[in-house]
Amino acid sequence: MALFGVYLLTLFSLLLIALFPSLCFAADPSVFYDLRLSYITASPLGVPQQVIAVNGKFPGPLINSTTNDNVNVNVHNDLDENLLMTWSGIQMRRDSWQDGVLGTNCPIQPKRNWTYQFQMKDQIGSFFYFPSLNFQRASGGFGPIIINNRVIIAIPFAQPDGDITITIGDWYIQNHTALRSALDAGKSLGMPDGVLINGKGPYRYNNTLVRDGIDYETIQVDPGKTYRIRVHNVGISTSLNFRIQNHFLLLAETEGYYTAQQNFTSLDIHVGQSYSFLVTMDQNASSDYYIVASARFVNESLWQRVTGVAVLHYSNSKGSATGPLPDPPNDVYDKSWSMNQALSIRQNVSASGARPNPQGSFHYGQINVTQTYVIKTVPPEIINGTLRTTLNGISFVNPDTPIRLADKYKVTGAYKLDFPDQPLNRTPRVDRSVINATYKGFIEIIFQNNDTVMQSFHVDGYSFFMVGMGTDEWTVDSRSRYNKWDAISRSTTQVFPGGWTAVLISLDNVGVWNIRTENLDRWYLGQETYMKIINPQENGATEMGLPDNVLYCGALQYLAKDQNNSAGSVLRGNSNLLFILLVAFFALINISS
Fold it and tell me: What is the DSSP letter of 296?
């Protein structure tokens, strides 16, 4: 009888492991957040307008986590249109089901909610979240993400005295639906109405340029202390130069990787990029100091009002900030200063990141490239009577059924695995072409920007090595200029107009991953694709399965269940099953004894 009880207990244990694989990772803590997106009225530039708040806040609250945390984010859609949240720079290892873009997820319908469940696997650093659909980021919905080092991994600088998050971005008084309508009508968005810092308009440094009554951001600091200041460009399409009057910015990290530390008086931060600086409050407190984010590569005499200004306030300050703003770089028509600055940002190869081994231990410069893609952009053009943007002549339209969901249920015709590896001499088209990438391959992607504007490009699911950039047309000879030792790893890179940026990616993260421009107008009009990476010997070990609370749409709409209270349905279902199993467990103990 005792032997029979042991046999039953063994079966019970195996059943528990099968039903609750997350129990195997109990050593990794879980964190829980509720994000409720809704419309509120705010006046960031002094004019009442509709913005998208998160939990009633604009910008949204911080998601604070630690390496390897299991993160559960219950997103409530109180908007009047579909919603998805994406987590810029979070790699979602083996789990593109949680990525929050239309190629991977069905949308969260109005008045419904859905819980994202993902792990901050082997990551540290500064990131942000935002709504990925319908141009919604132009109205807000964004907020910061911090992934802290585990206590066993030392950071490569003294522990700062405080941590400060700053979001910057260009802003329009029109909301996202009006801006979207303008793009649908074939119009340009024109010059933004201003730049926001932490969701607030500019300090009135100039009575002519800045209207009275605008609420501005004040950052409170203590003299002599050093702060880690994390800055995110969450804007629409404008590159911004960030600077703090009379203070050095010691660059420490960008998008999850520690950098070789160097001081800047200002830094160009492009759309979608994130940086963190160490800033020591070493100035006298005779007055407050300006924090500035001003538009780059524009006619500054016309764009003067497109400048964000906040105040750095010492606790012993004796007066307000006065006088002119600190000077911006004076190179409107010469991109060399900005490009040289970008190329000077190198990886700290001796520092540990999320793991104990040094960041430079992966010798990417010694790996043979297995695939090369030259992805070319051009100015918007008319396709089938509509203004569109393209990558390699293809303007992407998202599939009705997300790509991996279509694969799992054998939905045919949802997309095509035929994205060209170089620009083709053919008529531009609207299509659903996806890159067929090779698992464990080492891919080289060249973003060739033949558009007239500065662009940022982002790759979901990965950090890439930004090995080179230039102001000309890329050729194979351009590889001689690549940095093959300490190129910075990041997930968003700038590409200068008329120029190129080359990145290298080790394809070890299976799934379907979005490649897009971060310029919202270009993205909305079709400048994106996906990279599909599947292990041909897939046995369940390299890719997560369908989440229990998966949403269905498109060709699989018939599988959709009532999504009311969906956030807790999986946990409640598992809790009930666990209760039943526990009852069975104690019964087995009685039998075996």
Answer: -
Backbone angles phi, psi at 412, to 5 degrees: -90, 150
| 3-state SS string for 357-424 | CEHHHCCHHHCCCCEEEEEEECCCEEECCEEECCECCEEECCCCCCHHHHHHCCCCCCCECCCCCCCC
Burial class (CB within 10 angstroms; exposed 0-12, middle 13-18, buried 19+) of 395: buried
Instruction: Please tell me what DSSP assigns to residue 305.
Output: T
pLDDT tens-digit map of 362-383: 999 999 999 999 999 999 999 9
CA-based torsion, 291, 293, 299, 301: positive or negative: negative
Q: d(Cα 216, Cα 44) in Å, to the nearest integer?
A: 8
E-strand stretches of 183-246: 194-197, 218-221, 226-233, 240-244
Residue 432, φ and ψ in degrees, nearest 5: -120, 55
The model's pTM? 0.91
**Contact at 8 Å (CB) between 81 and 50?**
no
Beta strands in 315-370 (DSSP E): none
297-316 as b/e, with b when 16 or more CB fall inside 10 Å?
bbeeeebbbbbbbbbbbbee
CA distance 152 to 354: 10
**What is the secondary structure of 264-284 as a DSSP string?**
ES-EEE-TT-EEEEEEE--S-
pLDDT attached to residue 180: 97
What is the Cα Rg of the chain in Å?
25
Exposed (0-12), middle (13-18) or buried (19+): which is 356, by Cβ within 10 Å?
exposed
Cα 122 vs. chain centroid, distance in angstroms?
16
Beta-sheet pairing, 274-280 with 528-534: unpaired
- Of 550, 512, 532, 555, residue with least CA distance to 400: 555
> C-alpha distances in angstroms, 155 versus 89, 248, 355?
20, 20, 11
**How far apart, in whole angstroms, are the C-alpha atoms of residue 531 and residue 457?**
14
Chain segment 135-186, per-residue pLDDT in tens: 999 999 999 999 999 999 999 999 999 999 999 999 999 999 999 999 999 9
CA distances from 176 to 50, 138, 141, 564 (A): 9, 5, 11, 27
Average pLDDT of the chain is 91
Q: 256 near 489, Cβ under 8 Å? A: yes
Angstrom distance (rounded) from CA 520 to CA 588: 59
What are residue 257's phi and psi, to 5 degrees? -135, 135
